[in-house]
Specification:
Layout: H1 4-17, H2 23-39, H3 50-61, H4 66-85, H5 112-120, H6 129-142, H7 146-150, E1 157-158, E2 163-167, E3 173-177, H8 180-192, H9 217-230, H10 239-252, H11 257-264, H12 269-272, H13 274-290
Antiparallel strand pairs: 1-2, 2-3
Helix pairs in contact: 1-2, 2-4, 3-4, 6-8, 6-10, 10-13
């Protein structure tokens, strides 16, 4: 039986690292799920049913605003989607709950110049330098989720065809193109430093920690935070920011939205369309800036 305490700790890390939510949003989501845990403390998180959630929502909805109700449902959907991604549940109990009507979150995006600064900030003379540079290049070149990155295997690399194989949500496989800079960085890492860490327990895993094991999502998050500080980047950055930047830059340069959807592994193109809003915001800002009426 999985404890609520353990799974809430994992979920909190997921919100910070993969969802790149603010501290306030993470605190709100954890608070809502903690209330669910308190109500069903005698049940395992995996055993919560749709009926349980309906009863919980009805109890919590009494006397709170529509906005708070929407946030509660959003938190529940996010939590059980996390459970589904992690393979802890096969049936998502929130599937029968109507999604809340909330405004779309526009993610933080790095400029091409900021990406270059972060890449160039890596000290290749350090023991983990080639590994960290390869991680950053692959994140930006392929738009991977951090969970996909840490699970990437050497046997998933098809550099002769300039593709990698990615195991995404629900164990679904997809082929993603990889650019020359990323391939060169990975090859340098493989030839220069990976051999010092390799062990039998993770011999096919591409990116290894000092003990020869699989990197955690938290380790990737801390590495990226450190590199951003060295590069003088003040934005709130997470591994997912590289995924957002990858997609945004493709859309800005005219990539087909369906192709971007496939590369990101989105089930629905509606999810991918967020990047058209980012692109629209960019030219909207330009129009406002250069419109003659705004110079008065």
């Amino acid at each position: 039986m999985t404890s609520w305490k353990d799974i809430l700790s994992d979920y909190s890390s997921y919100l910070v690292i993969e969802r790149a939510l603010s501290k306030n949003s993470v605190s709100s989501y954890i608070s809502d799920i903690s209330k669910l845990a308190s109500k069903y403390k005698d049940k395992s998180p995996e055993d919560i049913s749709g009926e349980d959630l309906s009863a919980f929502i009805a109890q919590q909805a009494d006397g709170i605003s529509k906005r708070s109700q929407s946030r509660l449902i959003s938190a529940l959907k996010s939590f059980f989607r996390f459970m589904e991604i992690e393979g802890r549940i096969q049936v998502n109990p929130t599937d029968t709950i109507d999604p809340p009507k909330i405004s779309r979150h526009i993610p933080v995006v790095l400029s091409v110049e900021e990406i270059d600064r972060i890449m160039n900030s890596v000290d290749l003379s350090e023991p983990e330098g080639h590994r960290n540079r390869a991680i950053l290049e692959v994140l930006y070149s392929c738009g991977l989720r951090v969970s996909e990155l840490v699970s990437l295997r050497i046997s998933d690399l098809f550099f002769d065809e300039a593709f990698i194989r990615v195991i995404g949500k629900g164990d679904k496989q997809r082929l993603v193109p990889i650019g020359e800079p990323a391939m060169q960085a990975v090859e340098l890492y493989l030839s220069q430093s990976r051999r010092a860490y390799v062990s039998k327990k993770a011999e096919d895993i591409l990116f290894l920690n000092r003990r020869g094991g699989k990197l955690s999502r938290q380790m990737i998050f801390l590495m990226i935070k450190s590199q951003c500080e060295k590069a003088g980047i003040t934005k709130e950055i997470s591994p997912h920011t590289f995924r957002h930047s990858f997609a945004t830059h493709l859309v800005e340069n005219g990539a087909d939205l369906r192709a971007v959807q496939q590369m990101l592994g989105h089930e629905s193109i509606l999810t991918t369309e967020i990047y058209t809003h980012i692109d629209s915001r960019k030219w909207q800002d330009g129009i406002i800036k250069y419109h003659p009426r705004n110079h008065k």
